[in-house]
Amino acid sequence: MGEESTTRHDSRAERRALLVWTLLARTYHHALQEIEATLLDHGLTVMEFDVLAHIDARSGLTQQELAGRLLVTKGNVTYQLTKLEGQHLIERHVTKRCNHLHLTPRGRQVVHDAVVSLKALHTRQFAHLTPEEQRQLTALLRKATSAPSSAHDNATSPHAPLIEV
Predict the structure, then answer these.
(1) In the chain, which ranges are E strands?
(2) pLDDT in tens, 119-131
């Protein structure tokens, strides 16, 4: 009977874990769709916004540094930068053998407007939660993301949160 009880308990724990994972995945998918739509209102994709946000946070960033921060290939970065430069959102300043990246005034305005819209979106997304529930959710998500689930989790993420609460 002890073995059957353990199996039943494991099965319940597995179902509970699967439910949590499914809800997180659905939440992420729904939030990403809303983020994509919001950024599209500003003429941006998520990747373009990510590139612009990194350059905004650290003007003068090199193309190579940006590729490392975004965890994409140099070719993908070059493609994105060429598009953004064509839209007059960024400028590349060549020094020696490096391209240093800067936002144009138009690029700064687009990033600012997009951030304002994203903040409003996120406020709406969580408005149905009380401040205490938001704190609890934040604490639970931090706890979940800090628990190692595989050997790969021991690597430190190069991404710092854009907003700290």
Answers:
(1) 90-95, 98-103
(2) 999 999 999 999 9
Q: Considering the entire predicted model, what is its pTM?
A: 0.77
**CATH code given to domain 2-144:** 1.10.10.10
Tens-digit pLDDT profile for residues 69-101: 998 888 899 999 999 999 999 999 988 888 899
Tokens 């809303």 appear where? 34
> What is the sign, positive or negative, of the torsion defined by CA atoms of 61, 65, 69, 71?
positive
**CB neighbours (10 Å) of residue 38?**
18
Helix crossing, 105-125 with 46-57: angle to 10°?
Answer: 110
Nearest residue to 81 via CA among 59, 109, 101, 56: 101
Span between the terminal Cα atoms of the chain, in Å: 48
Write down the domain spans for the chain. 2-144
φ, ψ of residue 101 in degrees (nearest 5):
-105, 135
